[in-house]
Amino acid sequence: MKTVSVVLPTYNERENIVQLIEQLAFHLKDYDYEIIVVDDNSPDGTAEVAESMKSKYPIRVIRRPGKLGLTSAIYEGVLNAKGEIVVVMDADLQHPPNLVPKLISKTDKCDVVIASRYIKGGGIEEWSLTRKIISIGAIILARLIVKECRSIKDPVSGFFAVKKSLLHSWKPLVPEGYKALVEILAVVKPKRICEEPYVFKSRSKGSSKLGGKIMLSYIKLLVKLSPLRTALLILMLITLLASILLLIFR
User: Fold this and answer.
1) Which of 33-37, 170-174, 235-239 has the highest mean pLDDT?
2) 207: region left, alpha or beta (phi > 0 left; psi from -120 to 50 alpha)
3) What is the set of domains in the chain, with CATH numbers?
4) What's the confidence (pLDDT) of residue 233?
5) The pTM is what?
């Protein structure tokens, strides 16, 4: 039986964390699993709620002193993971817990299994035009700049499973960043990558963390990964225009 570590980076997810943990426990009942909550000092008491569930479920809570970045939270979860397979997902219920067993099962044949919004069967609920442009632009840039992303439909997904043995060579380039998967693919260079479709749900509780600071951190990451840094700004402007045209004329 595979051992599994589910890493949940959290910030102000008190309204979602109980339901998420209960659903994960249900879908992982046939696995030897642990749930690692990495909380960035949520003022709403997310860590305390997760701690209160430890008597019923195999949960570990890592409390951090403040908002240190999503990628660094994932990295800290990976460092503390005991499982052979590490599953990374958001704690806001936009990533469906019932898909986790399928991601795990596919690691028999794949080094990294990505839950994808952009392959057949996948999709997104209730996104604005601006959010779609940002997402498509981020994907196009990742494909252009990172060789390991070129054949992947959703390289910026925040929902994936990976063999822990592959992550020993990964250390965050941009700890405060938002797209850990792009970093992992670029650094680890996995040979076998699979994608599994899913529908990205609309958030029912809490608020989105997407903002200008997060987008700037992604640009910073791409600059670090790009072999042609001086041309990157022009490339980004061209890509943004292409993303807009794609949405208008598709």
Assistant:
1) 33-37
2) beta
3) 3-249 (3.90.550.10)
4) 56
5) 0.87
Rounded to whole angstroms, the Cα distance separating 85 from 88 reads: 10
Contact present, 70 and 159 (Cβ < 8 Å): no
Assess contact for 91 and 6: CB atoms under 8 A: no
Average pLDDT over residues 193-209: 77
Question: Is the Cβ–Cβ distance between 85 and 107 less than 8 Å?
Answer: yes
Q: Would you state the pLDDT for residue 114? A: 98
Rounded-to-5 percentages of helix, strand, coil across the chain:
45, 15, 40
Q: Round the average pLDDT of the chain to a whole number and report it.
A: 89
More confident residue, 195 or 231: 195
3 Cβ neighbours under 8 A, 6+ residues apart = 31, 32, 33, 82, 83, 84, 85
